Structure prediction request, 332 residues.
Amino acid sequence: MFSVKSAFNAGALIFTLAALLPAPGARAQPASEIFPNKVVRFVCPFPPGGANDLLARLFAQKMADAFGQQVIVDNRGGAGGIIGAELGARAPADGYTITMANLSMLAINPFLYAKLPYDVVRDFAPVIELAQSVNLLLVHPSVPATTVKELIDLAKAKPGGLNYATPGIGTPAHLATELMSSMAGIKLTHVPYKGSGAAIPAVIAGESQVFIEPIATSIAHARAGRMRALAVTSGRRPAVVPELPTMAESGLPGFEFTSWYGILAPAATPRAIVLRLNETINRILNQADLKENLNSQAMLTIGGTPEAFAGKIKNEMLRWGKVVKDTGAKAD
Prediction:
């Protein structure tokens, strides 16, 4: 039976529903315009203590400041970056999980391993290249070599007698040292560690005697005498260590190795969100304090478009695929 009360309740319901509907002419706000409106997870597929972790934490704080949302670094080290890379590739494609990437993860592992749980081209959307890093060739102070030539002569006299440390199988240091060994005609024994955080103390202790590592995480040890720097791996001498020769100047013409780092999103991430991330990080890369910070550690800021980073990955895959084949480097 109809009553005033039921009419009132029906009217209230209609009013409530009307209030929830958009006003005439209003449009739903695209996700990219409100992104991010919750915590962003930044997967770092490498353990704490190395250049990847250093950069991930630096950019996480800068992105948090820019977005007004927390950006949390999630270290998922292991298997040369494969564990973290798979996690990043399989994450929801909404921009709320991004992945730190480097040379080994994108351009070395696909050729070093017979099968990977991710496909570099199919499973990721490149966001931006962050930086490039100059590396040092270092030895333990007990090694009687102060130049690259002396190290090569020593290694030739005792094939396999010197251990070289790396942050893990398939890392840039692994392939760079194999490339050096191949070009110099020497044999060194590979000792992979679980990240730079474990490799650096091992070299300081003398467990391994040869080491290629970014300047950012090794220069303090070299200056303190805990390691001896013989050369830089870049094509020219960086301003931060002008006294050190390049590998090419030291008797290995044509040798050049530079680490690089970038950010990826899952492949199906909406283009608008990829561009939002890209534009924000490009602005961060132009901040004077960040440039000064990275330059002091022989890191060069890069930036650019997602397409530029995709092109870089493709070219580096061609280059390092050949290095893996030519040096015979293996994952076991």
The chain has a mean pLDDT of 90. The chain has 13 helices and eleven strands. The CA atoms of residues 135 and 213 lie 5 Å apart. The first helix runs from residue 4 to 20.
